[in-house]
Amino acid sequence: MKILYSNGVFKNWTWIIIFSIAFAWVESAVVVYLREIYFDGGFSFPLTIKWEGGKHVFDPLVRIEFGREIATIIILIAVGWITGRNKFQKFCFFMVAFGMWDIFYYIWLFVMVGWPESLMTWDLLFYVPLPWVGPVITPILIAITMVVAGSLIIYFDEKGYEIRWRWYDMGIELLCALIMIIAFCWDWKNILQIPGEIKRSGLPNPFAWWLYLPGYLFSIGYFILRLRQSITSKRPANPHSF
User: Which domain holds residue 215?
Assistant: First the structure.
């Protein structure tokens, strides 16, 4: 695939959006099929979990599903890599692709089967390495932020602004992301219905908002602060425009 930057990065951004929306339909369709196979077409908890001798017994198809989830992320990374003009843009195009894919994943599911019923409906987001569970609004908020943040950086980069994004800036944002991931996985023992003295229903407990919200809000605030500090000067004239 050859990207012609002379046509303007805006066209590349547009095609990333189109790809992500189409790819989201594929993802949504696969999930509908999996729900029909394993959960009688439903999207409710508890998950069907099998334990034998204290060990979690995986259906062979579940291992394939693990691989599919990882492959999906690799595809989105690859699309961003071949689209961006530099390493910074490559990462930002990945963010845009991932965000739009995630948003339209839920939109297409609602179109296909009328789910989720609301933004507070619980969902299993990922299953690698532990189940990520949370209300639908939580991944959507992250996805919207990724699209906006990635698009802003690409815009200012193409306008010729010097974006001084330091390694520890990325580290702070990744730490915020890790905190949000921990919030999604916080109830993993209950979701997997681990056998023991404590009876686990497999039904999601109240979400760990006390972890999610600080990580989410701080990541936005820090990004806005650093972006404003980073676009105070311009590089020499850039022939590329957004």
Answer: 8-230
